[in-house]
């Protein structure tokens, strides 16, 4: 669980657990989905971007839109849609704060 400012677009580090391939995963449409306040919101607006696929495989940065973070909490669900899978399913939960509509008010 991590904390994030409500409605902001600050980059978020994302670590993807690779499936023993030793090289960076290639993300495609449908691999990264968003759940907002317990409701499936669909694909993220922009896929996470690799930090350095050669030296740091699995390290990505995701920059959400303001609308994607206007909720009490959001969950990034990362799941490879291909077979065999290149990376394991990952989930990252963020609780928002700093706004009256956020999970953590104030």
Tell me about this structure.
There is one protein chain. The protein has no helices and eight strands. It has one domain: Sandwich (Immunoglobulin-like). The two termini are 19 Å apart. The mean pLDDT is 90.
What would the keywords be for this entry?
Immunoglobulin-like; 0% helix; 106 residues; single chain; 5-stranded mixed beta sheet; mainly beta; 3-stranded antiparallel beta sheet
Summarize the structure.
The chain is mainly β and 106 residues long. The model has no long low-confidence stretch (mean pLDDT 90). Helices cover 0% and strands 36% of the residues.
Q: Please report the first level of CATH classification, the CATH class.
A: Mainly Beta
Give the N-terminus to C-terminus distance in angstroms. Answer: 19 Å
**CATH fold-level label:** Immunoglobulin-like
Percent of residues in helices comes to: under 10%
- Rounded to the nearest angstrom, the radius of gyration is 14 Å
Topology of helices and strands:
Blueprint: E1 2-5, E2 12-15, E3 32-36, E4 39-43, E5 49-50, E6 59-62, E7 73-78, E8 90-97
């Amino acid at each position: 669980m991590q904390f994030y400012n409500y409605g902001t677009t600050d980059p978020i580090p994302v670590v993807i657990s690779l499936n023993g391939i030793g090289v960076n995963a290639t993300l495609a449409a449908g691999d990264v989905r968003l759940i907002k306040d317990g409701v499936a919101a669909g694909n993220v607006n922009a896929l996470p971007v690799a930090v350095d696929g050669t030296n740091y495989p699995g390290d990505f940065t995701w920059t959400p839109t303001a609308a994607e973070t206007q909720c009490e909490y959001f969950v990034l669900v990362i799941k490879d849609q291909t077979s065999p899978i290149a990376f394991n399913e990952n989930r990252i939960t963020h609780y928002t704060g700093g706004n009256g509509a956020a999970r953590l008010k104030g």
